[in-house]
């Protein structure tokens, strides 16, 4: 065994070395300080990385939609200490608002005029959801543009800057209804179709059978579409037709009826997505968004979308979904009016938006909205056959044909084309049965409703080939 000698008597140089020992402690202190700073900075970097990496679909558990925890002790330590949970704007105030916009898109007439505008609200504490549909013909003031139908807001935003329409429309809606809307999602027709096809189609409960023989077709033509009452399986194209149709018979020929069908489709899509966990998979969502990048515009980050879906998945009360359509029914909040250029518009009955804003602000307050939430329903009008009615204005009174269209649609008539007579003024009003249509019940009902005589059509009449009955409003007609 090797022997080790220990000298307990310190030499002078050794004493000096021993005297400097506290310096070593200071060195160790600074060393630990440097290590701490490095770790802290690493944590900050990790925090940034983790926060941004939440936009990566692979960072989420496909079942729970929770961010995956990193592997390794050091990585987990950084995750728990420095990770930041994504908070949706509005959760703190117990209401998250999203504006849903639907438009035709490039290749369609009026590509950036919105056909769909819905304020979707979610109340995290109760799981309640509300959808408020805003009619496209609602007249509002748009800063810098003047008075326009609200469906022009997206269009004006696009004129300012490409893909700015959704943000601008959200700003306009927020100001009009005095509500904070931090998020928006805008889809065109192609995105609408493909999203529904991607989830394997939908089952929708068609409440009323109806036929629309003026559904837009390519090359400025029309085609006929029909839906029968009951549960109907729809692919993307069929669901789009169901959601867009606005010239159907049997109470389905108005913008308000269309808005209710759009809400139906959205709820059916929600049911389909959350009934199969694979459809709510972050990777699946990411692929859809990426594939339809040019057809979907939103200010929501991918992390926001996953967080919102997680909240909906866990807390949504499917039995407590409120739907509301702003309309011009007897109990509704709106009435018909005519814009400065003679165009048909809707305006608040009270002359301002105070009552409507109060409804929207208190949509989750059952006591406040209970008497009004059913305002969408009107007395069921009598259906007068399948005749398509054309209205021509033979006077210089702007907007008369549009006002009569609205009046007749409420009574159950199927209105097709609107326009002016080739020559004006037209002295005598008349109801004309034209083409191969022979039934008289609809014409007689129109005579009783409008106080206009049924006349024999002269050879000089011009009308659309799809029309069965022509109404000419002459200078003798009194609204």
TrEMBL record:
What highest taxon heads this organism's lineage? Bacteria
InterPro entries xref list: LytR/CpsA/Psr_C, LytR/CpsA/Psr_CW_biosynth, LytR_CpsA_psr
**Residues annotated as domain LytR/CpsA/Psr regulator C-terminal:** 387-477
Q: Which UniProt keywords apply?
A: Membrane, Transmembrane, Transmembrane helix
Question: Where in the numbering of this chain does the Cell envelope-related transcriptional attenuator domain appear?
Answer: 114-273
Q: Mark the transmembrane ranges.
A: 29-50
Establish whether keyword Membrane is in the entry. yes
Q: Which family does it belong to?
A: Belongs to the LytR/CpsA/Psr (LCP) family.
Q: What is this protein called?
A: Cell envelope-related transcriptional attenuator domain-containing protein
